[in-house]
């Protein structure tokens, strides 16, 4: 039996009223994918929309959004979770996909056709308002990131991002809270606007302060309260 999905606060689905949410999740079909699956590919002309939801394992969805430049260089733009939409921009604009979406843990989705999704938005004005709010939130988040790049140094930005991911995806481990998202140092750098060497130095500093224990492609937070203070975040 599949448990009721958990919608992360602040996501598109979490903001819908119960009737609208129920109708949305009745559209299309539910699919589950293992970690490492490409859900959407940059440049594709497909216009389906995916609603990220909770897998049978009860883990929140975790999907990396990656942009590939013409020279093949990849940049991690962000991470989406249960309640987020992906593919919405291509569906609304009817333009090619602007980025690739790849699962970083077992993830379930509700796959909805372009026609079903646009008809749903016409029937449910509150959902259309939710789409606009989501787009505004994305722009606001980009603005906040730019401000952080200016205001804080590398270790502080890294601490803030670790807290954000630990709060959303963290799971209890033997020595603390495992962040739960496998990221290379380059990917950490993409998220905080820093080069790999800067990320290495920042990791060492947080480790030396006994705040985190970095491991290959993952991090354990051993002092979450201390990491929040270091990142100038409220408890």
UniProtKB/TrEMBL annotation:
Q: Which CDD domains match?
A: CAP_ED (cd00038)
Q: Which residues form the Cyclic nucleotide-binding domain?
A: 12-121
| Entry GO CC | cytosol
Q: Does the keyword Transcription regulation apply?
A: yes
Residues annotated as domain HTH crp-type: 152-225
Which GO-annotated molecular functions does the record name? DNA binding; DNA-binding transcription factor activity
Q: Name one Pfam family in it.
A: cNMP_binding
Query: Any idea which UniProt keywords this protein has?
Result: DNA-binding, Transcription, Transcription regulation
Q: Which domain of life is it from?
A: Bacteria
User: What PANTHER family does UniProt report for this protein, alphabetically?
Assistant: CRP FAMILY TRANSCRIPTIONAL REGULATORY PROTEIN, DNA-BINDING TRANSCRIPTIONAL DUAL REGULATOR CRP
Protein's UniProt name: Crp/Fnr family transcriptional regulator
To which species is this protein native? Lentzea alba
């Amino acid at each position: 039996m599949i448990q009721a999905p958990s919608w992360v606060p602040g996501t598109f689905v979490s903001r819908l009223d119960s009737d609208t949410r129920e109708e949305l999740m009745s559209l299309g079909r539910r699919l589950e994918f293992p970690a490492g699956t490409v859900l959407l590919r940059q440049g594709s002309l497909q216009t389906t929309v995916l609603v990220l939801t909770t897998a049978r394992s009860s883990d929140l969805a975790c999907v990396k959004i990656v942009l590939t430049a013409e020279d093949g260089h990849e940049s991690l733009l962000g991470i989406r979770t249960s309640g987020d939409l992906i593919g919405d921009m291509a569906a609304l604009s009817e333009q090619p996909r602007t980025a690739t979406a790849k699962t970083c843990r077992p993830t379930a989705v509700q796959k909805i056709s372009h026609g079903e999704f646009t008809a749903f938005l016409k029937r449910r004005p509150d959902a259309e308002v939710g789409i606009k709010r989501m787009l505004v939130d994305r722009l606001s988040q980009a603005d906040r990131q730019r401000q952080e790049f200016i205001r804080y140094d590398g270790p502080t930005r890294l601490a803030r991002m670790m807290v954000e991911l630990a709060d959303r995806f963290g799971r209890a481990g033997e020595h603390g809270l495992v962040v739960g998202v496998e990221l290379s140092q380059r990917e950490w750098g993409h998220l905080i606007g820093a080069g790999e060497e800067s990320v290495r130095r920042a990791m060492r500093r947080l480790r030396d302060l006994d705040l985190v224990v970095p491991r290959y492609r993952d991090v354990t937070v051993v002092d979450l309260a201390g990491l929040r203070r270091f990142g100038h975040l409220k408890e």
